[in-house]
Amino acid sequence: MVKKDEKITLADLIVVIYMSLAFFLIPGCAKEQKSGDLSQPAVQVYEVIQQDVPVYAEWIGTTDGMVNAIIRAQVQGYLIKQNYHEGDFVRKGQILFEIDPRTFRAALDQAKGQLGEQTARWQTAKANLTRIIPLAEQNAVSKKDLDDAIGQEKAAHAAVISAEAFVEKARLDLDFTKIVSPVDGIAGIAKTQIGNLVGPGVTEELTTVSTVDPIKVYISVSEQEYLIGTGKGKNGFKGNSLEMVLSDGSVYSHKGNFTLADRQVDVKTGTIRVAAVFKNPGNILRPGQFAKVRAIIKVKSALLVPQRAVMELQGSYRVAVVDAGNRVDIRPVKVAERINSLWVVDEGLKAGERVIAEGVQKVRQGIVVNPVRYVAEQPGAEQTQKAEGLPAAESTATKR
């Protein structure tokens, strides 16, 4: 009986050993299978395309009004009224400020009185001359009396002209107590307050009115760019259609044109100031804003890849290329301009090659991958790219 029990125990022990081995081997096989799957990571690839793309030249510019009228008082007096809302659009001739007119009205009355006095003296002198002329013809009065009468009449006439001028000046001074806008435009914040003494001797202006539709953008271009621009023809610079990129990255809806170049090149910087003009309906743009102005200088055939496919490391750029055998080749490339969400590659790629656009961090040189077609993340991107003649890739445009 004891031997029979020992045999059963030995058999049971063998079964337990086999089950234990199976328990440890099966997870190992699964792990090996899983490791085999990781050796071919799934990546999204983009086929390099070749097409004509515009090449832009860009400059940083500052907006300015077509006319910036600095408003100053032409007569001295105390400011008693402000007739406009700061920042509003004002019309030519609209009254902006008023100066106390009382002293100027009194001066006008005084000038009118002096004019009346001088006019009366002139009338007397003319009457005397009228009486003396016939007497002088009859030699009833001396030649000297005639000359004196003629001189008095002319002096009285001159005094009348002078008095009329004083009246006109007094009237102008009274009119100048109402300070008006010389142009249509946006009136700025007032730089003086009611009750302040203003006048020609005060250095600070009252406000500024700027005409901003259309609006100017001043940029500085290098001497070489200026020569290239003017070399395209008599009006080479003026013929270019310009785009303006605002500070929020948006492209302004209206295109502009170069209008003028300054008379000289700045000898310190080697640049020349050039002005471009853009329409500004609604007066949205205001003087002093910073913006980029860009112009198409040429069109070239270029290779394009998504920006996210390009890896940058210490100033050098690389892309991961997937060959026909799905093996990864990491190459250095030379990049150029950015066109929307794509990047122009000048060297290192050929049209039709596949580059990894998603999953670059998973790969290394020589690894075999499982490639699938790159799909843009945002909806509607494919339609946008088709409209531009590009395959589906990035949908978010990069603002330059």
User: How many domains in all?
Assistant: 4
Widest sheet, order of strands: 2-9-12-11-10-13
The span between the termini is 94 Å
Query: Helix-strand pattern, N to C?
Result: HEEEEEHHEEEEHEEEEEEEEEEH
Principal-axis shape: elongated
Number of strands: 19
In the CATH classification, which architecture of the largest domain applies?
Beta Barrel
Tell me, rounded to a whole number, the average pLDDT: 82
Question: How large a portion of the residues is in β-strands, by DSSP E?
Answer: 25-35%
Radius of gyration: 44 Å
Task: Assign the CATH topology of the largest domain.
Answer: conserved putative lor/sdh protein from methanococcus maripaludis s2 fold
Largest sheet: 6 strands, antiparallel, barrel
At the first level of CATH, what is the class of the largest domain? Mainly Beta
What helical percentage do the residues reach? 25-40%
**Given the structure, what is the number of helices?**
5
As residue ranges, the low-confidence spans are 1-7, 28-37, 378-400
Structural class: alpha+beta
Q: Key terms for this structure?
A:
5 helices, alpha+beta, single chain, 400 residues, 4 domains, 4-stranded antiparallel sheet, Elongation Factor Tu (Ef-tu), domain 3, OB fold (Dihydrolipoamide Acetyltransferase, E2P), 6-stranded antiparallel β-barrel, conserved putative lor/sdh protein from methanococcus maripaludis s2 fold
